[in-house]
Structure formats: C-alpha cells, structure tokens
Write a structure and sequence with these properties.
The structure is a single chain. This protein has helices spanning 35-40, 46-55, 69-82, 99-111, 123-129, 151-182, 184-189, 192-211, 269-276, 311-315, 332-338, 355-368, 385-397, 409-415, 435-441, 479-506, 511-514, 516-552, and strands at 21-24, 87-91, 115-119, 133-137, 140-144, 229-240, 243-254, 258-262, 284-289, 295-298, 322-325, 328-331, 373-377, 401-405, 418-422, 428-432. The chain is built from 18 helices and 16 strands. The strands form five sheets. It has a six-stranded mixed sheet, sandwiched between helices. A three-stranded parallel sheet has the order 1-2-3, with helices on one face. Strands 7-6-9 form a three-stranded antiparallel sheet, covered by helices on one side. The chain folds into five domains: 21-138, Rossmann fold, CATH 3.40.50; 153-211; 229-294 and 370-451, P-loop containing nucleotide triphosphate hydrolases (Rossmann fold, 3-Layer(aba) Sandwich), CATH 3.40.50; 303-364, no CATH class; 470-552, Valyl-tRNA synthetase, C-terminal domain (Helix Hairpins, Orthogonal Bundle). β2, α4 (99-111) and β3 form a beta-alpha-beta unit.
Length: 553
C-alpha cells in the first residue's frame, strides 16, 4: 500500500510531489538483456547503475539469465540505490545474500540520504540499520522510536500488559455476570445500562482472543542415538576443474554438535555438506560416517518441493490422509495446522505458496522424520521472527546433531558450537563458537574473498562530467573543487590508518569474551570507516579525472 501497488480499503496515501519511492520486492523479477539494462530501466543514470552493480559484486554486462537467488537480490538492490530514491521500501532484503553482501547493504543504507522502511527478520542487520520500529502484531501496529536493539524488551512489556488487560477484563466479566444473573438486586432491577456494559465487555474479550496469534507447533525427534562420532573427515580436498573449493581439511563432528558453515555465495558450502554426508567423493582424503545415522535435509533451493503438487500431496508422498510423524500417524490437516496452514490451503499447489510458507512446508516434512542428524541449508529465509524464535528453541533442545548453512549472523551466534568458514578460494578454517567468535579469531580470513565472484566488490566509477559551456571554458578546477581534492588527499590516509588501527584491535582473540559491547562498537566503527573511505576514493577519482581533463583541454 505504501508503494502504491495495492489500494487500501480506507484512509489516504499522500506522496509529496517530486518525491521518488522505490520498492524492492521479496522475490524481485529481473528482466532485460543485461544487468545494466535492468538497473537503468527505472530511470537511473548509466554511470550510477554501473557503480551500484559493481558495489554489489556484479558485472554490468552480464546476462540476466541464469542468476542465482542471491545475484537477483543484489541486482534489485543495486537498481534501487542507483535510482537515488527519497524513500526506499525493502521487503526481506537480506534473503539469499551472503554476509559480505549484507555488510555492503548496511554500508549503502548508511551512506544513502533516503528514508528506508525495512521488513526483515535478520536481527543483526536490523540492529545496525534502524532507528525506529513498527511492530505489526494481531492486526495492530505498535511504534517504538528507537532502533531494533531495544525492540525485544519493549515487545515483551507490551505482551505482558496485554495479558494483564485480558486477565482483568475476564475478572470484570465474571463479576458482572454473577451480579446480572444471580444477584437478587439485579433480578429486581435488571439494569439495562449494566446489561449493555456486560455485552460490550464480552465483545471486547472476543475481539482480543480472536486477535491472539495461534502459535506455531515445532517439535523434532532425534530418534535412536547415533554413535558418538557422527562424521570424521581427514585431509579432504575438492576441486572442479581449475576451481579449488577446499584444500586439505580435517574435522570431527561429535553427537550433539551444532556446526555452522559460512562463506560467500558460491564458495562451496553446499559442496562441503555433500562431502561430509558422503554424497560426494573428495578428490583426496577420507570421510567416515558414524553408526546408526538418520539424516533429514532441508535444502536452500527448496528443490525437494514439486510446484505442481498440492500441499496435501507434499505432506503425504505415499498417498492417503495420514502423515507419519516420527513413527506416529497424524491426519494431514491437523499436522498442517501445527505449521499455520489453513485447511483451505491443503488442495492448493505448492507454486501458490509464499516463500515463508514453502519454507514452513519443508520444515514440516523434515521434522516429521525421525532423524538424529539434521542438515539445514539457509533455513531462516522468509521466516518471520516468531517462527525463527521457535526454530531456535527447537534446535537448542534438539538432542541430535545439527549442520547449519546460514548467513544469518545472529542465528549462528545463538546456536553454533563451532563454525567452519570457506573463502571461495580453497581456504577453510574451523573455530569454536559462532560468527562473532570466528571473526574475532580470524579477522582477516575473508579479506581476499571480498573481491571474489559472489562477494562484495567496490570499484570506483566516476560519473561522466558534464561538458562546460563553450563561452566559459575552464582551464583548472574551481576553488571549491581544488579545496575538496586537497581535503580528500589528507583524509584518505587518515581513514586508512583508522581502519588499520581498528583491525589491529580486532586481532585480540580475547576481546569479544572480555567486552562484547566494545567488540560490536569496533565492528560498527570499522564498517563506517570502510564505507567513508570507499566514498572518498570515488569522489577523489572523479575530481582527479576532472582536473586532468581540464589540463588536457
């Protein structure tokens, strides 16, 4: 409705004349012959579109055909920023993005002058980018004039206040009902005012109860215990032609471990999972699987779902109306309701489901299995925060073994007992703990990966200088431009020194354990300094080219 694509039943939408609103949909459609064609289709200048595409690690001349989900998302974001909007509407912008593309998006939002309204479940992203929250809950909108870092205690207080209001209302109805039907005074007088008040209270309670969200029911059964050693990999390596996925790597996954796998898009995370599960043979080394393994796998591409099947058929692949849930039969409609599906959806094709609904369907199928090894590839895509919280609780209580491929930094930090990182160039490292633990122990691991395909690339692209009028042909930079050039000459080395100093502080392996807040402040300062340096380099290059062009003239 805010984007002007859906008409409201009531109320008004007013847009200040001349203001530009750009909307990036949850599942953007990429069209045109090349990415540059797509990025300029909304009116962006060619040089702005080229720069934005390169900022997000994409070649402007690349075809729009055959893009991955992450590449399509980056193309849509690049187009949005290139159009220089006044208001930017982003629906689940971090879905399918790797951590580095998310960091670039954070930097672009900080540098942009646009107001941004963001729908997202990525807590770490929201904490870094927001200064206000709107909470849509039970058909109402609550507003918090602070960033997402303050959201959870505030939301908990609202929920507690509502529960107390409902409790008091129920008590009041109980008292009035007793008075109205059992009191001798009431039987004599039958006060119509109190009767209307009682009816109003009952309507209010019915409204409040109707608006209380039905909770999602998530449970996972680990089944029979696996052996203590789940997976043991020794000296494994893998390459496809000249492209090296991983060099020599060894690891041991024990029963009950929660192993996170991280890295840029295209780095080989899914390949590593297939190697560890024995679905793909390594070029060198060995992989041994433990005894009594029962594996449930939720894939990132949702390829396990047939779009032509109905939801009913997807849940009952063997036919009938029963789902075998961890060995016990349940009616398909009742099981579907546990995952918030309506009975009317059971006969709808999978293709008609939203991204979040398809993800819930995959979880429903996976969690019905009795498995002691659960493999989740990007499970957080399209899930709302309440479902994410339940999924986190379920996985924390799950007594089997978990392998998790994710770019959700907060999700990893809450669950992982160890993190395996691939840089896309063959390097691979495993450290105990989650994402923050990994970064604190390996602050420079991804430095080269940031320039690889699929990772963030920043290439300064200067805007084309407008030709000077012939009557006022300039022969040197204006005083303002010359002063700015000198300022940038002094500023850039200073920023580089600041970045080096911040990176040096992050090399302290005990910093996060001693002071998590200081670690987070340093990370935010580092992001800001890097974004400022990149912008300064772009501006310096444009002024230098302008100076050289004037000198040549």
């Amino acid at each position: 409705m805010l984007a002007g694509r859906t008409e409201a039943d009531g109320g008004d939408r007013f847009l200040t004349p001349g203001k530009r609103v750009v909307f990036v949909a949850q599942e953007p459609a990429i069209s045109g012959e090349t990415l540059l064609d797509f990025a300029t289709a909304g009116g962006a200048a060619t040089h702005e579109a080229e720069a934005a595409l390169q900022d997000f690690g994409l070649e402007p001349g690349r075809s729009t055909q055959g893009l991955s989900g992450g590449e399509g998302r980056r193309a849509a974001l690049a187009r949005a920023f290139a159009e220089k909007p006044d208001v930017l509407l982003l629906d689940e912008p971090t879905n399918h993005l790797d951590i580095f593309a998310i960091e670039t998006l954070e930097a672009e939002l900080r540098a942009s002058r646009a107001a941004a309204l963001i729908v997202s479940h990525d807590r770490a992203f929201l904490e870094r980018t927001t200064n206000r929250c709107f909470w849509l809950e039970d058909r109402r909108i609550f507003r918090l004039d602070k960033g997402f870092a303050h959201f959870e205690p505030w939301a908990d207080k609202i929920a507690a206040d509502q529960a107390e209001t409902l409790r008091r209302l129920s008590k009041a109805i109980e008292r009035e009902t007793y008075w109205f039907y059992r009191s001798i005074t009431a039987q004599r007088t039958r006060n119509e005012g109190r009767a209307r008040e009682l009816a109003a209270m009952r309507r209010q309670k019915a409204e409040m109860i109707r608006d209380i969200s039905r909770p999602l029911s998530l449970t996972a059964e680990s089944g029979a215990a696996s052996g203590q050693r789940v997976i043991e990999a020794k000296g494994i390596s893998k390459a496809f032609g000249e492209r090296v996925i991983l060099k020599t790597f060894s690891t041991r996954v024990q029963r009950g471990d929660r192993v996170a796998i991280v890295g840029p898009n295209g780095a080989g995370k899914t390949t590593l999972v297939k190697l560890l599960l024995g679905e793909l043979a390594p070029d060198e080394g060995t992989v041994k699987l433990g005894t009594n393994l029962q594996v449930a796998y939720v894939d990132q591409a949702r390829a396990q779902l047939n779009p032509a099947e109905t939801l009913w058929e997807a849940l009952t692949p063997s036919g009938g109306d029963q789902v075998l849930v961890r060995g016990q039969p349940r009616h398909v409609a009742a099981y579907a309701r546990d995952f918030l599906f309506q009975d009317s959806q059971l006969r709808q094709p999978v293709a008609s489901l939203s991204g979040g609904e398809r993800n819930r369907l995959l979880l429903a199928r996976a969690l019905a299995q009795t498995a002691n090894l659960l493999v989740l590839d990007e499970p957080t895509n399209d899930l709302d925060m309440d479902t994410l919280d339940l999924l986190e609780d379920l996985l924390a209580d799950y007594d089997g073994t978990l392998i998790l491929v994710s770019h959700d930094r907060d999700f990893i930090d809450r669950l992982a007992t160890s993190t395996i990182a691939l840089d896309g160039r063959g390097a691979i490292v495993e450290t105990p703990g989650g994402w923050k633990d990994f970064v604190s122990q390996n602050p420079h691991f991804f430095d080269q990966a940031r320039g690889s395909p699929g990772a963030v690339v920043r290439k300064p692209v200067a805007p084309k200088a407008a030709p000077e009028p012939a009557a006022k042909k300039a022969v040197k930079l204006s005083f303002k431009d010359q002063h700015r050039l000198e300022t940038l000459d002094a500023l850039m080395p200073k920023l580089a020194g600041e970045i080096a100093a911040l990176e040096k502080r992050l090399e302290d392996p005990g910093l996060y354990a001693r002071d998590p807040a200081a670690f987070d402040r340093i990370m935010k300062s580092l992001d800001t300094a890097r974004a400022t340096l990149a912008g300064s380099e772009d501006e310096w290059l444009a002024l230098e080219e302008k100076r050289e062009a004037l000198g040549a003239a």
